[in-house]
Amino acid sequence: MHLPISVSLKGQSLLEVVVLVGLALVIVTGLTIVTINGLKNSQFSQNRAQATRFAQDAIDCIRSIKDQNKPIKIDTDTYYWYDASATKLLIWAAPANTFPNTFKILNPPPAQSCVGLQNAAFDNSLPTALKSTFTRTINMEDYGGASQKKVTVVVSWTDVSGTHNSTMATVIAKN
Known about the structure:
The protein has one domain. Helices cover about 30% and strands about 30% of the residues. It is built from one helix and eight strands; from the N terminus they run αββββββββ. The protein has an eight-stranded mixed beta sheet, with helices on one face.
């Protein structure tokens, strides 16, 4: 005698479960990639904004140094922007081999004021917490004759996608 076999078609087949897990993995992987790229782009934008601010701070500081006739130290010589008494070395009359030259800012912001420039391989006057991320180079060169100097500030940083720079330049005139 045969007993009736009852077959239930309820539930999922193994193939359906495998397809569902595979589809879920593809979706999760895609979302992870989008999130990671978004975070990298956000960090890059934040670093770029910070670097641009550091470059602008240096340009503003150098303009302030000029306006207040603060000194520029190059090796053992100290130059000034102007001198009514004609007794100081003037930046405009520096020897031809003086420029181009790189500088660091003495007493940079957020201190009370920029007190001058000192020639150096790079500007180490960035805030301590940011020195491991950013480097700033300030270059001054002759531009358009003896009455103008071109100041170029480059702030660099490295992240997972390579080395990046934010560059600003200005021309400072004698008058």
